[in-house]
């Protein structure tokens, strides 16, 4: 593993980075995380990611022991020597901390703060040219009254199980349905479709992670005067769709050409998807040049 890691302020190589087996993040998945990437070596939308990190932590009643400026410094210290000529992927993890085997939060004195910095690997351009193949997983997205998908938690078994199904079928991603049988999101990304010139994505109420990229896509759509809205979507809508794509921090915007046995639209990456991707990248690079823009 090629990475630099920061555990509670101490920066080491990947093989030297250690967290206790009594950490409740390890024992119970009791923690939260964010994945960021840099453009021009600046963490993109750091403010939005930290806001979501704090919101997730609050839902688990984990008190994050760092201010935003502390995060900025720690991220810089961790990524300084990583992939100097290229972009970096950063993962921030906050766990409940080290404590006795107990579900009582008071068993842990202080949260553990980990940052992993690695070279960012762009999604291969061939995938963008050919488009992704998705499957609808048999495992349902967690019910919002169970492990709420809007919390970006380290408890990722729901996502892991869905992605295992996709991998088994040699697909690129898995779509998860919610308990009502509606599309919610994918195992590691948000889902969008294009129908009659409109871009649609499942509403937050479908039970999903409110992606930073998903939210940004509404702004990118406005730039292009392409309407982007929330709508309930189901498998029965697949034959009527013109285009489909997924969004995430690490993958930006990636076209989808097939879901299971259904071809989407022409079976090739769609023109609206490609315009959104182009504008997304333009805005991301602009923001990286001009910090005041985000
Ligand atoms: N994944 N939905 C899920 C379940 C995700 O795990 C992610 C992000 C997203 C997209 O969110 P954003 O646009 O804020 O990256 C949606 C990240 C990349 C990860 O797990 O590493």
Give structural notes.
GO terms for molecular function: catalytic activity. Belongs to the class-IV pyridoxal-phosphate-dependent aminotransferase family. Keywords: Pyridoxal phosphate. The protein is of the alpha+beta class and 294 residues long. It has 2 domains: 4-119, D-amino Acid Aminotransferase, Chain A, domain 1 (2-Layer Sandwich); 125-288, D-amino Acid Aminotransferase, subunit A, domain 2 (D-amino Acid Aminotransferase, Chain A, domain 2, Alpha-Beta Barrel), CATH 3.20.10. 28% of the residues lie in helices and 27% in strands. The protein has 7 helices and 15 strands. The strands form 2 sheets. Strands 7, 8, 9, 10, 11, 12, 13, 14 and 15 form a 9-stranded mixed beta sheet that branches. A 6-stranded antiparallel beta sheet has the order 2-1-6-5-3-4. α6 (212-224) packs across α7. The chain is globular and about 55 Å long. The model has no long low-confidence stretch (mean pLDDT 97).
Largest beta-sheet details: 9 strands, mixed
Report the mean per-residue pLDDT as an integer.
97
The name of the CATH architecture of the largest domain is Alpha-Beta Barrel
* Estimated helix fraction: 25-40%
Query: What is the string of SSEs from the N terminus onward?
Result: EEHEEHHEEHEHEEEEHEEEEH
Q: Proportion of β residues?
A: 25-35%
Shape: globular
Query: Any idea of the CATH topology of the largest domain?
Result: D-amino Acid Aminotransferase, Chain A, domain 2
Given this structure, which CATH class of the largest domain is correct?
Alpha Beta
Number of individual domains: 2
Kindly provide the radius of gyration, computed on alpha-carbon positions and rounded to a whole number of angstroms.
19 Å
The CATH homologous superfamily name of the largest domain equals D-amino Acid Aminotransferase, subunit A, domain 2
The number of helical elements comes to 7
Q: Give the total of beta strands.
A: 15
Low-confidence stretches: none
Distance between the termini: 32 Å
Q: Quickly give the structural class.
A: alpha+beta
Bound molecules: N-(5'-phosphopyridoxyl)-D-alanine
